[in-house]
Amino acid sequence: MYRYMRPVPNSLTVARLIALPFIVWTYGLYAPGAAWTTAWIVLFAALSDVADGLIARKFDVQSEFGRWVDPIVDRVFFFTIVAMLWYYGTLPWLAVLPLLIRDGIILGLAIPTRKYTDEGPQISRWGKASNFILICALQWFIIDLRELGWAFFAVGATLYVASGLLYGYRAILWVRRARGRVG
Asked: Do you find a cis peptide bond into 32, omega within 30 degrees of 0?
């Protein structure tokens, strides 16, 4: 019935990935000051992430591509923005390191999880909350309101690392369960 909606969620995911070079470029034009153009692009990209999931569920147009690629694009998107803020001196290395390690582990676990199970990544409420809070923090940093950025960052980073531990635990359970069925 809603076939015309089928490509929309995946198109939004790909558009978010394509936006990354523009985000880095525009931030570089203004760093370390307020980069409003970058903030708007990041805001629209973040909203597109919400929209792709809502559209996929509402119109029942989920796809295997979206189930596996969307979370990876989300991690690449977040990784790029955090690395960009570090590169331009907005965030110190010690603030960035736990977030990047968490994302690296999550991306690394995606491969064996995909190999051993058909279950897709299950997004936890902690994961959603931490992503929202951290995107807010990054937006505050991008527009050079660092005090607000640090307040949001402290809460978001704590939830982010905790949700990463939860994802890791779940991935190990998925793989063990799948190996038990195969062996």
From this structure: yes
- The CATH class that applies to domain 3-182 reads mainly alpha
Calculated CA dihedral for residues 29, 154, 83, 97, nearest 10 degrees: 150
Within 10 angstroms of residue 75's Cβ, the number of other Cβ atoms is 17
Sign (positive/negative) of CA torsion 129, 150, 16, 99? negative
Whether the model clears a pTM of 0.90, i.e. scores above it, the answer is no
Residues 48, 101: contact at Cβ < 8 Å?
no
pLDDT at 1 over 60: no
Residue 64 exposed, middle or buried by CB count within 10 Å (0-12, 13-18, 19+)? exposed
Q: What is the pLDDT of residues 72-109, one digit of tens each?
A: 898 889 889 999 999 999 999 999 999 888 877 777 77
Helix axes 64-87, 7-30, angle to 10 degrees: 0
The DSSP code sequence of 23-68 is HHHHHHHHTTS--HHHHHHHHHHHHHHHHHHHHHHHTT---HHHHH
Structure tokens at 92: 């110190």
